[in-house]
Amino acid sequence: MVKHTATSVVTIERFIIEQERNFPQATGQLSGILQDIALAGKLITNKVRRAGLVDILGALESENVQGEIQQKLDVFANETIVKAMDHGGRLCAMASEEEPEIIPIPDQFKCGNYVLCFDPLDGSSNIDVNVPVGTIFSVMRKITRGVHGELEDVLQPGRRQVAAGYIIYGSSTMMVYTTGHGVHGFTLDPSIGEFLLSHPDIKIPRRGRYLSVNDSYEQYWDEPVKALMRRYRGLDGQQKAMNVRYVGSLVADFHRNLLGGGVFAYPANTQSPRGKLRMLYECNPLAFIVQQAGGAATDGINDILDVIPTELHQRSPLFIGSADDIETAKDMLAKRVA
Ligand code: AHM
Ligand code: MG
After folding, report:
1. Of the candidate ranges 56-65, 164-173, 203-212, the one whose mean pLDDT is the lowest
2. 194-199/183-189 β-pairing
3. What residue's CA is closest to ligand 1, atom 17?
4. Separation CA 170–CA 261 (nearest Å)
């Protein structure tokens, strides 16, 4: 493996190709998918960066499949990704948080061996207050035999992901991804339009500094979740208090905790019995990334990566972050099912 440090100038294209060379049997399809996602990320960055300047903000009349108001930038991001990805001959289907059914590859294009699931612009309700938002993606191999991808190809457990990542549109734009060989982060240099390797081989600290949770739902949590949050806050005298940091934009909260150590939690509550976040577009990709960085993710009972999804837009509770802190969550939440 070629070793890079944060001071060598390595573009994402070069890095992807160098990683591919370690696998002589690789067809190049996965590398092509990652490069196309990086391109989509640059196009979306361009639009997000100018969001405050053009009259683009405001909700459309339509509501998306999750019943939440769709913002115009969501629609743009969704279309940008579909257009960047549908013609490369590498994918056989896609699934987006913004679309009710799987997205077929148009007949005029070749189908490939992979499926792509994505949340085009997560945290989009934050756009008009200039809070970071992000694109999240997950890639799996096709398992059905036909040419076109089917629902079954998309409904695979997270353990089968071959790549996952996110692009955060923050104070700078970063793309962070894994193909199962560590987690690597690239920062977009806007002056040359290239993602440059800035965070090679990211590892999440075993214990975290930060706790990210929306505790306005506390009254709706069950007792084990309340006890866990008291533990994290140091209120039961069992551990040092974590600092509470909640942006309300998953990619931003996750990214901070990945680098600094911590836990992001979106528990189920009596108002949302299955939590809020989606298995295919949010929980699975971030669980793969955190696992590759040395952390873990659970829904409170199972490792997120082991759950077999049954619906395209399935929601799941999520506790994700530093390994020791997630171990605490598993121990304390297991009391519910004992
Ligand atoms: P979205 O996919 O509709 O943008 O919703 C997901 C977002 C996450 O980014 C964030 O972690 C969560 O919703 C915040 O929800 P809440 O406001 O209930 O805390
Ligand atoms: Mg989302």
Report:
1. 56-65
2. antiparallel
3. 248
4. 19
Query: What CATH number does the domain containing 52 carry?
Result: 3.30.540.10
Q: How far is the CA of 277 from the centre of ligand 1 (A)?
A: 7
CB 68 near ligand 1, within 6 Å: yes
* Residue 132 is assigned to a structural domain of this protein: yes
DSSP for 140-196 reads: EE--SSSSS--HHHHS--GGGEEEEEEEEESSSEEEEEESSS-EEEEEEETTTTEEE
Question: Around ion ligand 2, which residues have CB less than 5 A away?
Answer: 119, 122
Claim to verify: residue 146 and residue 282 sit in the same structural domain: no
* Residue 101 CB-density burial (10 A; 0-12 exposed, 13-18 middle, 19+ buried): exposed
Structural domains counted in the chain? 2
- Is there a domain that residue 205 lies in? no
Ligand 1 atom with the shortest distance to the CA of 253: 11
In this structure, are 246 and 330 located in the same domain?
Answer: yes
**What ligand has the least distance to the C-alpha of 118?**
2
Confidence of residue 50 (pLDDT cuts 50, 70, 90): confident
High-pLDDT (> 90) share of the chain, %: 83
**Residue-range definition of the domain harbouring residue 284:** 210-336
Arithmetic mean of pLDDT, 63-68: 59
**Cβ neighbours, 10 Å, residue 12:** 22
Of 146, 166, 199, the last residue of a domain is 199
Share of the chain above pLDDT 70, in %: 91
Looking at the domain assignment, is residue 54 inside a domain?
yes
Q: 223-251, pLDDT tens digit by residue?
A: 999 999 999 999 999 999 999 999 999 99
Based on the domain organization, do 184 and 301 belong to the same domain?
Answer: no
Separation of 282 CA from ligand 2 center, angstroms? 6
Same domain, 228 and 194: no
Same domain, 136 and 26: yes
Of the three residues 199, 229, 260, the one that is the final residue of a domain is 199
**Cβ–Cβ < 8 Å for 295, 262:** no
